[in-house]
Structure formats: C-alpha cells, structure tokens
Amino acid sequence: MMVEEENLEAPKEAVIEDESESKKGCCGCLWTPIYWIKMLATEMHWSFVLGVVIVYGISQGLGGALARVGTQYYMKDVQKVQPSEAQVYAGITSLPWIVKPLWGLLTDVLPIFGYRRRPYFILAGCLGVFSMLLLSMHEKLHLVFAVSALTASSAGIAIADVTIDACVAQNSICHPSLASDMQSLCSLCSAIGALIGYSISGIFVHLIGPKGVFGLMTIPAGLLILVGILLNEPQVPDFNYKQVNLKFLDAGKAMWTTLKFPLVWRPCLYMYLSFAVSLNIHEGLFYWYTDSKAGPSFSQETVGFVLSVGPVGSILAAILYQNSLKDYPFQDVLFWAQLLSGLSGMLDLLLVLRLNLKFGIPDFVALVIDEGISRMVGQLKWMPLLVLSSRLCPSGIEGTFFALLMSIDNAGVLSSSWGGGLLLHILKVTRTQFHNLWLAILIRNILRITPLCVIFLVPRGDPDTSFLPAELESKEETAEASEAENIELVALVNSIDAR
C-alpha cells in the first residue's frame, strides 16, 4: 500500500521537477501556469480540468458576463421595469441556485442510463439552449415568460455547476493539499472568462441588441452538452432504482447529522449572514450611470468595458490568495476581507455624490477604480469560503453537501438582492429619480461591516486542517473503501482503489 501511494505521488513530483527546470529560463513565469495546470490534470484527470474550464470559464464566466449585461439592458430598455423591480427579478432568476442540494442529490443517487454526471450536463445544456432561443426569437415576450426563461437558463447553469462542484469536492477530499489549487483554478477560469465576456458584451449589445446577445448565449449552453458527451465517467452496472428513495433518505440524514455539529453549522451561519446583510443595489447604480440627466450617461460599450475591469480584480485576488493568503487561518482572512468590503463600498458614495469631480477624477476613471477594487475584495472574501466549504464535505454525499453549503451562500445573495430592491423602493429610487441613491449606498456600506460581530463563528484553522468530527471522518474512510462507484471520474476511481 505504501508503494502504491508513493507511485500515486510520482507524477506530481515529476511535473514539479520539470516545472522547476522550466523556471530557470527567462520565460519561466510564462510556463509556470501551464505546468501548474498540467500537474492538476495529471493528478485528477484531464476531463476534470476540461469540465472546470467549460463550466466556470465559458458558461459562468464568459456566458455569465454576456447574460448579465444583456439582461440589464433587456429589463431597462425592452421590458422597461423600475430598478427596484429589476432587483427583485434578478433574485427570482437566482432561485435555482437555492435548490442546489436537490441537483446534488439527483447527481449523487439517481444515475440516468447508468451515468451519474454526464446526463445532467446534457440536461443543463438543453435548458440553456431552449430558454435563450425563446428570449432571442420572440418579438414581444411577456415579462412573466421572460423571467421564466431567464430562470430556466439559470437552472441549467446551476445544474452544471453542482455537477462539476461534486468533482471539486471529491478531489478536495482525495487531494487535500490541492484544495486551494482547485479553487484557484475555478476562480481564474471564471475571472478570465468574465474578462473576455464583459469586454465584448457592450459591443454586442450595441450591435445586435439584448435579444441578439441572448442568441449568442446558446453557444456556452451547447458546450455544456459537449461536456456531458466527453466526460470520462464509468457506467454504473445494473443500478437498482428501487433504492433511490432509501438513498435520498440516507443522504438527508447524513446532511442533517453533519449540520448539527457546531464546527459545521457555525461557519454556515456566518456565510449566510455575510452575504445577506450586504444589500445588493447594483440595479439602482446601473440605472444611474446610464441615465442622461442625473448620471454620467455611459454608453453600452463603456459599461461593458468598465465591467471587464472587475474580472481583472478577481484574477489579482486569486493570484494573491494562491501565493500569499491560502495558508493563513480562515478567520483572519475573512476578517480583513469583510472590513475592506465595507470600506470599498465608499467609492460608490464618492461617485454618486460627484465628489470625484471635485478632486479632478473623471467619472469613467472613478468607476473603473471602483469596479476593480470592489471585485478584488469580493473575490478575496469568496475564495476562503469556497475552500472552507470543500473541507466540510463528508464523503459519499460530497456533491450534495457542497451544493448545500453553496445554496446557503446563494440564499444569502437572494436575501441581499430582495433586500436591496426593497431598500430602493422605500427610498423611492426609480428609473429617473436618484436623489436618495447616496443614502442607499451608505446604509449598504454600514451593513457590510456588521458580520464582523459574528466572525467568531468561523474556525481559525487553515486549509490543511480537518474540521469534520472524528466520527464523521471514520465514516468517510468506510465510505471510501466500500462505495468507490460513487466517484465521478475514472482517475478518481483508480486513486481510491489504489488506497
């Protein structure tokens, strides 16, 4: 067994040695990311890396950027809704992310035609293709059907996300030392995809309109179908579908048993509160900086370019976390990230009050700085939460439990969106009236700092610390030995069998 474990680590050591030799050259910094990705592909199978690139980079990153800008202009110019209403509708379209545990349970316990993951990628792609075609081809789609189509598209992305998350969570258990690397890969793919998507989003909205952008969104959705076709997954032979109900009950009991431990529910509570109290008022800001009278009246191309700065901040945050912060205790990183989140929000206040002009800073430059810093701080807060979530997942239901933890975060985002819409409504921020927008920003910034009062809920351990109780860890070892068929990829099955 010891020999086999050493053999498992041999590819990683060989890759690292090759990487070290490459670094000796003057272009070593350019080769480092390539060898890093090669190391991850060697350790966890190339199909896992491909799935991460397509789901996070193309579907959520590039496609999410196009969808965000397209949806904002669609609601503002086509459906002509108020900013507070647009904020509520944005929350409705995020509802599929709240029920991520359901998608996780289905992928864990209900294989289709003998496969646990591939059919769900195909289903996700089909949902996205059909809903985007409806939005792009219908001339006068009723608001109810438009929101329903956007929600269906969101459901497709959520299903693909939870399926690839199951791979991430399982790999975090099998390779705990690479947990931060996997989250960095996910974040970098998402950020680079978003950078490209935002850079071209304004141009496409200007040239072909919001509905034309929805038509382009069928391409990322189609690639999800490709992931389902190419994924290297073993087929489950002679699956007994009569046991599905029992497995659902067992998974529910396992999740409830895990959640009852203070080391699990306490950080979950912090995750929800940190997102929920940070009210989302972005739609009000969007309506303001595209308004020709009260705001700077940015064009569609300018909006897309400004938003493309955000992913640059996310990339810098991912690099900073990977190289400097990943070994620090979770509590310390989250404390400073939460504090900086509240302080960075003051940049919005300076912009709306036009104080930047008094200092000679143009609106465009001020908004670029605001977007870059805000996204960087937000990513620094998000990454340790992702790593912590992956370390809280018990084996056997890792996909489902990771989805549960992410749904808690998304429930916080939903609360933030609806709370922000309510705040905009109370302060009477409309399509043309922005007198109280500064007050909404100030209230949001104060609320962003309040989670520091409950920062003690987060454990002080680092990413290499095991947070699960001893009895759950013993169950994990038993599950890994007896239920290797639940693991997503062939390489992972071989790794577990070797143990």
Automatic annotation (TrEMBL):
The keyword Membrane applies. It comes from the Eukaryota. Gene3D superfamilies: MFS general substrate transporter like domains. It is found in: Membrane. One of its GO terms (cellular component) is membrane. InterPro entries: BT1, FBT, MFS_trans_sf. GO terms for biological process: folate transmembrane transport. Its main location: membrane. The chain crosses the membrane at residues 46-67, 120-137, 143-164, 185-208, 214-232, 269-290, 302-321, 333-353, 401-424, 436-458. It is a multi-pass membrane protein. Keywords: Membrane, Transmembrane, Transmembrane helix, Transport. Belongs to the major facilitator superfamily. Folate-biopterin transporter (TC 2.A.71) family. This is Major facilitator superfamily (MFS) profile domain-containing protein.
